[in-house]
Specification:
Elements (H helix, E strand, L loop, with lengths): L2 E6 L4 E5 L8 E5 L2 E5 L12 H9 L4 E6 L5 H4 L2 H7 L1 E7 L6 H13 L3 E4 L4 E5 L2 E6 L13 E6 L2 E5 L5 H10 L7 E3 L11 H7 L3 E4 L11 H9 L3 E4 H4 L1 E6 L1
Length: 252
């Protein structure tokens, strides 16, 4: 079994980037509370949402406090129904923007069927997660659905994790201009390692120590050599779910 384990001695937070193929799903757990950023998988990945539900249950999750969706692309939302079939989701936070109304409507109908409260994020918001804090940033605008998504900062003491979804480098620049982001320890690499994301400006601004690429078999060339080179030049240690499987970061 492939497995990546990383340890930080700073707080009490567990993070898992779940191996869902060419998709995205990052679990954050602190003080008995659980949050998930995105819940999707590649189109050929069996049982969308099942791997993420299995991981949450193995961590002792009885209900998910927050499900945050960066945007409504299939590879970020395809597991929502499968997850909700197995775990109660208390709150769904999502952007009030979409290119594909069918996918957006499916998510909203699924949430309603499972009794999850829905909130559209239109301004910066914070949520307590046990001993940690989630800061959720609203859409910043751009050329497509990817650039109208939510981003998230998970903080515990001196440890910070940043997730930017699929936003491109131009929208990353808007993010670092609009909000006072700290130096971070971990970054979920943007858009599965696309050459158009995780730009030098973002890397210079937040100075991540490690980067996690959530990626599987794909025809897009992810992760791109350009993005990987930028990460290496910035001194970032790179981990990949297609190489190491689930990536665990333990902040103790």
């Amino acid at each position: 079994m492939k497995l990546g384990r990383l340890y930080y001695a700073r707080g009490a937070l567990d993070i898992v980037a779940v191996d869902v193929g060419q998709g995205a799903g990052t679990i954050m757990a602190s003080g008995g509370q659980f949050a998930l950023m995105d819940c999707g998988s590649g189109s050929s990945w069996p049982g969308a949402g099942s791997d993420t539900a299995d991981q949450l249950l193995s961590m002792g999750c009885k209900e998910l406090d927050y499900l945050v969706l960066s945007h409504y692309d299939y590879d970020h939302i395809s597991g929502v129904a499968g997850l909700m079939d197995r775990l109660r989701v208390k709150a769904l936070l999502a952007p009030d923007y979409w290119d594909d109304s069918n996918l957006r409507n499916w998510v909203m109908e699924t949430a309603a069927e499972h009794g999850a409260a829905v909130e559209f994020v239109t301004a910066e918001e914070t949520r307590a997660l046990g001993n940690s804090v989630l800061t959720i940033y609203p859409p910043l605008g751009g050329d497509n659905d990817n650039d109208h998504g939510l981003s998230l900062l998970c903080s515990d003491g001196d440890f910070d994790l940043l997730i930017t979804g699929d936003m491109d480098a131009k929208t990353e620049e808007k993010l670092i201009s609009a909000y006072p982001l700290p130096d971070i320890e971990a970054l979920i690499v943007g858009h599965h390692g696309s050459k158009y994301s995780t730009g030098e400006e973002l890397l210079d601004a937040v100075k991540p120590e490690l980067g996690v690429v959530s990626v599987g078999r794909n025809s897009y060339g992810h992760p791109s050599e350009e993005a990987l080179r930028r990460l290496v030049r910035a001194g970032v240690t790179v981990y990949r779910t297609d190489k190491q499987g689930n990536i665990h970061i333990f902040v103790k």
